[in-house]
Amino acid sequence: MGDPSRLAGMQRFGIDTEHALGISVTELRGVARTLGHDHLLAGALWRSGIHEARMLASMVDEPQRVTPGQMEAWIARVRSWDLCDGLCGNLFDRTPYWFDKAVEWSGREPEFTKRAGFALMAWAAVHRKDEPDERFERFLRLIEERATDGRNYVKKAVSWALRQIGKCGTGTPPGSDLDSASTPRAR
């Protein structure tokens, strides 16, 4: 299933391939459907250290069994934007802790932890249509406060979160100047 010829393409897209096999996400999704959900298997896959096994772990884990400690341990080991986004969109945004982690991580310094905070915001806007606008309005305020990080992977996640929240129909929070031409980050 792995194809080492894919590694060069993965590298061109900024994916860390040091421990990768060259298995596509489409193939991983097929394997995940066959395996079903299994928290213990997800832990074993994660511990392998193999890039695609970790992505598969995000697909087969059981969100209701994930703990904040597991979320912290896993995000601390992420070294690639695709795994960061996969963890957030396949698993973390489906846990009861998604909101608190989005707020907390978006204020942290490590690049992929901070990206994960904004990725959780973006994925929540896609997956959590039942959430009240007030939660997303809080995210807008955080985006405004924390949008000055110059690192590429963080900037892209900030932009992604802002665009996804904008698609939700959430209004600009009262007192915010996100839409003001005088705000450099909003131009």
Number of domains: 2
Q: Biggest β-sheet: count, sense, barrel?
A: none
Average the pLDDT over all residues and give the rounded result.
Answer: 91
**SSE series:** HHHHHHHHHH
Q: Please report which band the strand proportion falls in: under 5%, 5-15%, 15-25%, 25-35%, 35-45% or over 45%.
A: under 5%
Distance between the termini: 46 Å
- Supply Rg: 17 Å
Helix/strand class: mainly alpha
The count of β-strands is 0
Please give the count of helices.
Answer: 10
Shape: globular
Pick out the low-confidence regions: 180-187
Write the layout of secondary structure elements.
Layout: H1 7-12, H2 25-35, H3 39-47, H4 51-60, H5 68-76, H6 81-90, H7 98-105, H8 111-127, H9 133-146, H10 152-167
Written description of the protein model:
The chain is an all-alpha fold and 187 residues long. The protein has 2 domains: 1-61, no CATH class; 80-187. The protein is 59% helix and 0% strand. The chain has 10 helices and no strands. α4 (51-60) packs parallel to α6 (81-90), α7 packs antiparallel against α8 and α9 packs antiparallel against α10. Residues 180-187 have low confidence and may be disordered.
Q: How would you concisely characterize the structure shown here?
A:
The chain is 59% helix and 0% strand.
Keywords:
187 residues, 2 domains, mainly alpha, 59% helix, 10 helices
